[in-house]
Amino acid sequence: MSSLPRWVLIPALLGGLFVLLPLMAMALRVHWTHFGELITSESSLAALRLSLQTSAASAALCVLCGVPMSLLLARSEFRGLSLLRSLVLIPLVLPPVVGGIALLYTFGRQGLLGGHLEVLGLQIAFSTTAVVLAQTFVALPFLVISLEGALRTAGTRYEAAAASLGARPSRVLLRVTLPLVMPALLSGTVLSFARALGEFGATITFAGSLQGTTRTLPLEIYLQRESDPEAAVALSFVLMIVAVAVIAVARRRVPS
Q1: Out of 43, 80, 159, 232, which could bridge 224 as a Cys pair, Cβ 3.0 to 4.6 Å?
Q2: What are 199-212's pLDDT values in tens digits?
Q3: What domains appear along the chain, each with residue ranges and CATH number?
């Protein structure tokens, strides 16, 4: 700290206040005397339960798809790799509502794949599955970024040593590569869960807002904002606490 110029402290404090003051202002608006009633209504509990379930499913999908993607980006060398990495990270900069429109024109009834899935009796848009897909679309890059960086930092020397001793590629992956980057994998999974938990734009565009089916907690907060502002503030506070807890867990998984 002593090596830093003193003027750095001023913009750092301003940045911290810019983040913390709105959260403090929201916490001060919570009606604590009715807090329990506000967050335990039938619609609120259904939204919270659905959010936790779909976010967990989304995080699992992120691991299932994100680990191979990270391995490909970190361990491969081919023309077009930079372009592929850019495409994978597009959801980070794309407005979520645009992602929802893209998913709708892919899996919707008149979409690129949706029409064929309808023939098979599979309707994805405006279902719980659509919520999971929307959350996965926006959360997947978080795991890919975390894991790819860890893979590049870890290098390939241990993998090469294991391969030279006769270990098959799958065994090297499961016994050497993944244990080396497990902290980053856990951190990326937790961050993906957190991003999925707070997803709004892609969800409402692609899945709609049906209570008990597609109405997640962010959507419930948005709807309550007009009809019951006190409930919206209370639910927002709950979501903020969950987010803080998730980030704290993720930070504990990152080696110092």
Answers
A1: 232
A2: 999 999 999 999 99
A3: 35-253 (1.10.3720.10)
